[in-house]
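anyone seen this seq b4? input:
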Amino acid sequence: MKKTFCLLALAVLFCSYTHAQMTIKTLPYPKTKKVDVVDTYFGTQVPDPYRWLEHDHADDTKAWVQDENKVTFNYLDQIPYRAEIHKRLEFLWNYEKYSAPFKEGKYIYFYKNDGLQSQNVLYRQLGDNGVPEVFLDPNKFSADGTTSLQGIDFSKNGDLAAYQISEGGSDWRKVIVINAEDKSVVGDTLKDVKFSGLAWHGTDGFYYSSYDKPTEGSQLSGMTQFHKLYYHKLGTPQSTDKLIFGGDKTPRRYIGAYLTEDERFLVITAATSTTGNELYIQDLSKPGSQIINIVNNFDNQHSVLDNVGSKLYILTNIYSPNFKIITVDAAEPGITHWKNLIPETKNVLSATTGGGKIFAEYLQDATSLIQQYNMDGKLERTIQLPSIGSASGFGTKKEEKVTYYTFTNYIYPPTIFKLDIETGNSVVYKKSGVKFDPEQYESKQVFYTSKDKTKIPMIITYKKGTVLNGQNPTLLYAYGGFGISLTPAFSTSNIILLEHGGIYAVPNLRGGGEYGETWHRKGIKLKKQNVFDDFIAAAEYLIKNKYTSKDYLAVSGGSNGGLLIGAMLTQRPDLFKVAFPAVGVLDMLRYNKFTAGAGWSYDYGTAEDSEQMFKYLYNYSPYHALKPGVYPATMITTADHDDRVVPAHSFKFAARLQEYQQGTAPTLIRIETNAGHGAGQSTAQLINGQVDKWAFMFWNMGVKW
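predicted toks r here
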């Protein structure tokens, strides 16, 4: 009784904070200098007074970052319930987390986090009943937990492993080779590896991809153009690695490579953008064999799934925007010889193989439908999933009898299932330990109408019994680009919103891949406005149906989704109360001047393409579309080591938004240090970022905690 009384007393005290009783004392925004820089596009002069903020390595930029963070954290520190949100989220986050296991050599490997460890630890054990031992602990890579393990690849026999590490969240990686048995280092560490897999050929060496590191300006923001595929032979210096493909003759390519499981074929993909690729193979069983081109254009996407002898299994969307699987003999691999194995359907197809089977992973209105086929293309069964949601995994080696997959949705914490490939029976292998009761919540899919009458799906999640009175704090999150599909996934952070009567809504905007390449292309280049219109319509649907109202609506998105939120701030600042543009592409006239940004032109187009394309980009580019006016409470987020979407986008946008804000709502930028585009952040960084998001959102909505 005494304990209950104390908890109630604390709750009353905590909920007693109101905006009437407390006002946050804000620091003045930094006085951001302006420079006289003007670019001319097709006769139009475009001023860029904050160009100097693109120089992330400059002392004045570093000083500006420190000043902005001082303003931001001074504001956040004064939110009275921020510490309580942190305490609650840390409690929720503190449970054991596992990955699905995978087999290499005689060992079973899996990732595990005890709860609040900075990075997930890689374990291994002998057989299903073996005693787990630590194989690699990234928490020991650096003192602050910001050096992360970003992938590991084993030789076919499992004797050797090559793993990649990222320092401070950068996309530039180091590769370390070890003997898997005793974990001793083999040979030298490879440096300056970027956007690469590691493909072993026997135990002699492996293939990898990288760029020449920029020699001028910042190594984090400098343009990278010539991706190259190398072969590294163990025991030799990296400087002598053999160039296999790419380089000066193939500029602005993304080069990837992998081997078929039997190591007979080297498969090479070359792309000029994030959509479409050339496809090549090399028969490594024949000494001196040449690299053979299968597809010689970038109009469609193709990958080799598997092979049986010389028979190749290829996943492709040529003439089939929702993808299909074909077979062809490697001796005559041209398109004219392709034979359909699993034809296109109305649902978008991706696929993996394992146990001598093909697992066709379909998207049905942005949720998973899994079917198992034999290698002759005969449907054997539909895998029974526990609910409507997202299933991933399934792939394994040919000789395996079981495989694993993970299932989740917005109210179903990630659960690992073990699948008997022969019978199709699934059993729970690892259940999530998160402290969350799905029975208290509901998640439903609705379809709403966009500006041009297109039907858009959206999944809305909230606590059962929530009264739709327009006063529920709501977070509307979306992406809408690059053919990427947003499928239902559980978020521990979202518990903070849901358990306090909030609503989480995710629409599947055009530009994504939920309905195949056709859906993607309806949201690119001169059709990008469709993406923004779809998002606006989602917000209007939520308001019209009284899930929320403009005073209780927050909008959020990252990367390309950060562009989306930037566009919302300039096009419909009247529609919502709070905005979170994260690591966003916000300067649409110069995005292609940094790192690998030129590869995004398939989705965006560039200001140099044509006068029409320039005017279209200039019209919606968030940085350029800002005008003096009243804007919602905004917290822009970025990171000092983001070398994918360079922080200059967010820096320049924040400076101009602070200049133009004529309302009283705060305009902050939160700049994470020792972090990149998102991958590899420590648990503490992740939790702190989420805490600040919820605190900022609730406070600016006037929501009592």
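The first strand starts at residue 38 and ends at 41. The longest helix spans residues 59-77. kinda curious what u guys think
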